TrEMBL record:
Keywords: Electron transport, Transport
Protein's name in the database: Electron transfer flavoprotein subunit beta
Pfam families to which the protein is assigned, alphabetical: ETF
Electron transfer flavoprotein alpha/beta-subunit N-terminal domain location: 23-211
Length: 249
């Protein structure tokens, strides 16, 4: 069984992003970039399924600038077998990403498409749902457990009231949540070995996909600054401040 996993190159989660002076976007110049954390979880899950003998090939795909190759090499070092880069300098919104992933899925015919539940840069949480609709496949979103059989996959999902388990007929789309697994630490020999694994390149034009943006960002602003906190001596002072200054009591 083949698994296709989408990995996005995003600003590293440790970086404190700054908004550009003209308020059009966040500034990503000279900022550390890494694999989207939910996509690391997606790759890890695919590798564990392969180690368990349930998946035979893992193909990872990234869409974006040339440097996404680094993200793909990390996924290959984690255990993926081959990689596809859909290279473009265009801004890719979730609908365009979903169309490109559908085009790749049509070619590759995986039984399982695993994506992150959201990319931590735009926080859209749309791609998995959109590509599932475009493909006409079932979707198990926010997965905290994946149980794969030959023809179905049981996905346990984190929902408000607890956990829900759905059974999907394959092929299917799964989106990963934080508690699904803990991605492995990549060892140096695996990084070296990943350099020799196949990485193919294609483009939106080759795949016949129009990636023109459908949404326009009007403005990007920093969150309001919080004023500094203070220490109170006792509960009475706290209650007095809540009453007289914050006026919330
Ligand atoms: P989003 O809908 O933008 O929050 O992204 C959800 C998931 O879709 C991500 O965790 C990735 O698995 C996948 N994805 C989104 N954009 C890209 C991209 N440019 N390249 C590869 N995968 C992507």
């Amino acid at each position: 069984m083949k698994a296709l996993v989408a990995v996005k190159r995003v600003v590293d989660y440790n970086v404190k992003v700054r908004v550009k002076a003209d308020g059009t976007d966040v500034d990503v110049a000279n900022v550390k970039m890494s694999m989207n954390p939910f996509d690391e979880i997606a790759v890890e899950e695919a590798v564990r399924l392969k180690e368990a003998g349930k998946v035979s090939e893992i193909v990872v795909v990234s869409l974006g600038v040339k440097q996404c190759e680094e993200t793909l090499r990390t996924a290959l070092a984690m255990g993926a077998d081959r990689a596809i880069l859909v290279e473009t300098d265009a801004e890719l919104q979730p609908l365009a990403v979903a169309k490109l992933l559908k085009a790749i899925a049509d070619k590759e015919q995986p039984q399982l498409l695993i994506v992150g539940k959201q990319a931590i840069d735009d926080d859209a949480n749309q791609t998995g749902q959109m590509v599932s609709a475009l493909l006409g496949w079932g979707q198990g979103t926010f997965a905290s457990k994946v149980d794969l059989s030959a023809e179905t996959v049981d996905v346990t999902r984190e929902v408000d009231g607890g956990l829900e388990t759905v059974k999907l007929r394959l092929p299917a789309v799964v989106t990963t949540d934080l508690r699904l697994n803990e991605p492995r630490y990549v060892k140096l020999p695996n990084i070296m070995a990943a350099k020799k694994k196949p990485l193919d390149k294609t483009s939106p034009a080759d795949l016949g996909v129009d990636v023109a943006p459908r949404l326009k960002t009007l403005k990007v602003a920093e969150p309001a600054k919080r004023s500094a906190g203070i220490k109170v001596a006792n509960a009475a002072e706290l209650v007095a401040k809540l009453k007289n200054e914050a006026k919330v009591l």
